[in-house]
Amino acid sequence: xxxxxxxxxxxxxxxxxxxxxxxxxxxxxxxxxxxxxxxxxxxxxxxxxxxxxxxxxxxxxxxxxxxxxxxxxxxxxxxxxxxxxxxxxxxxxxxxxxxxxxxxxxxxxxxxxxxxxxxxxxxxxxxxxxxxxxxxxxxxxxxxxxxxxxxxxxxxxxxxxxxxxxxxxxxxxxxxxxxxxxxxxxxxxxxxxxxxxxxxxxxxxxxxxxxxxxxxxxxxxxxxxxxxxxxxxxxxxxxxxxxxxxxxxxxxxxxxxxxxxxxxxxxxxxxxxxx
Length: 275
What we know:
The protein is of the alpha/beta class. The chain has helices at about 70-80, 100-105, 125-130, 140-145, 150-160, 175-190, 205-220, 235-240, 265-270; strands at about 30-40, 45-55, 60-65, 85-90, 95, 110-115, 195-200, 225-230, 245-250, 250-260. Strand 9 (about 245-250) and strand 10 (about 250-260) form a beta hairpin. Helix 5 crosses helix 6 (about 175-190) and helix 6 (about 175-190) runs parallel beside helix 7 (about 205-220). It starts with about 30 loop residues before the first strand and ends in a 6-residue tail after the last helix.
């Protein structure tokens, strides 16, 4: 993996759209979602035949109003929700058909970054990053909170990649919001994923910190070759950093196109209420 500078202020003139991909063919996608449906017992349909593919080295941003199905889609992809129909294929396995230990093993290549970093505040930054590797080290010792020593040095490398190696020994509870979210990214990298899902990763950050996190996610795709999918509520960040934009409305995909070809009017239409 490449090493990011400790200051992430570089690369502001990066325009991923200039080399943006067309919608990924399912055969070449690292993440392939096909005809995904999620219906709840009360009759509400959260997802209605959603399909998308994301390739290695590609960053895709999903846009849409609250309740359009974005977060439900992310939960189905990572296996937190079980869809009522369709498939979610990662590394050749359909996560939608698995459960228990088979699901836990199959979803290891998928790392989820949430709106809140959810760090263990009393533990060090380095220890928090190491927890990303626990899925590969299931034992009595790790169940009691001990961290595998073999993961310490790689964790330092992941902290260096997000520009925070100098804070490795600091308590996580002392970090700013932007720093905490970058540690969450490093923790996701410790999982050694093929796919990174970021569900509103900058929603609680100020503009400068949000830009830092988006630059970092962009570099995970460009430099590390990961497939990155982010749910955002900030169209300006989406158009600046994404290769492709997926617009969702009422549980369906309204568009899936190069970021450079999607107008702000089409994005605005996603947020217009329908009777």
